Amino acid sequence: MDLRFTEEQLMMRDMVRSFANDKIAPFVEEMEKGVFPRDILAQMGELGLMGITVPEQYGGAGMDFTSYIIAINELSRVSAVVGVILSVHTSVGTNPILYFGTEAQKQKYVPKLASGEYLGAFCLTEPSAGSDAASLKTRAIKDGDEYVINGSKVFITNGGEADVYIVFASTNPEAGAKGISAFIVEKGTEGFVVGKDEHKMGLHGSRTVQLTFEQMRIPAENLLGEEGEGFKIAMANLDVGRIGIAAQSLGIAEAALGYAVDYAKERVQFGKPIAAQQGVGFKLADMATAVEASRLLIFRAANLRAQGLPCGQEASMAKLFASKTAVDVSIDAVQVFGGYGYTKDYPVERLFRDAKVTEIYEGTSEIQRLVISKNLTK
Ligand code: CAA
User: Name one GO molecular function term (predicted).
Assistant: First the structure.
């Protein structure tokens, strides 16, 4: 595998890096207070970042998948909040329509999602259906040329802010996973109720809400794919989405490593910089090695995806390893900073809080192991 980025990919990296440093970094403190980065997303729309892999015919930038992963990675080095918003918007908010929608659905929704006029979200998880996603209870019943949807969803990233939601509901409860269908739901539909905002440990600027559907009627033409295809649509898009979350994790880990190295070079104890003391120097070496290994797993998975090859196993491995690295490296960075690392005066405590959820959402680490082990033994 050629590990060098193309000219186009390097341009994407440099452009997103500058944008993140110039426009996002000054807004990180506001996001920490819980402010959703609407204005930043609008600017990202203008730069073509809200539809990086969307073909030009649907209003996107028509770039390759690796460029998209580079963008998530670069954004997340500065703000894991912006990283997850874009990852969810693209891989599980826009792509299900792009890959499983009818031409009419694509024409209606994808250009607006790709330009950033619309934000996307994904509604699979329910109060009693998290890792066991196929046990969801939300029900969709066909009534003439409409579906009536009732149920509750939890932990919906971009919820309340998004304009378009990919909603999973059962059209045939007896059929289990094969009875689940996917629907395109617009915010503002009668019966679409935005509930409690979750007060999270980290990612404060990313909105996470509960949603309730109360006798919510949507046109039958908003069914995505065929009835009963919903679970496969969810899984196929999560396969790819997990590479995005792995890239977000990598961004967090790289940021934590960078801060730790800079601090360790400056902080003098026992007459020399702590980086020159083996206890800290070896820690930095382990952190850097894990970051590099994450990068290789992620860009290997991205490369497969970019070629249109199966990548589910590699995506799960990348997410499993990179999310653990984000947590480990950010904890180690706090340790390198000592007492200062435990305060809000330095960014490493935020990175640690932001890192933890990467081991939980888009499939917990345990689910990634399940996917990998099933693949090994099938
Ligand atoms: N691609 C396509 N189809 C797939 C698939 C995949 N990756 N994985 C499974 N399927 C198909 C299977 O082939 C099967 O169909 P057939 O019988 O026709 O072969 C059907 O789906 C059911 O498969 P399983 O029996 O394997 O399903 P399961 O009930 O055992 O569940 C699971 C598998 C991997 C555990 C799955 O439930 C899962 O991924 N759980 C985690 C859920 C998750 O990731 N949630 C994330 C929420 S979104 C989010 O977090 C976004 C955010 O906020 C950041």
Answer: flavin adenine dinucleotide binding
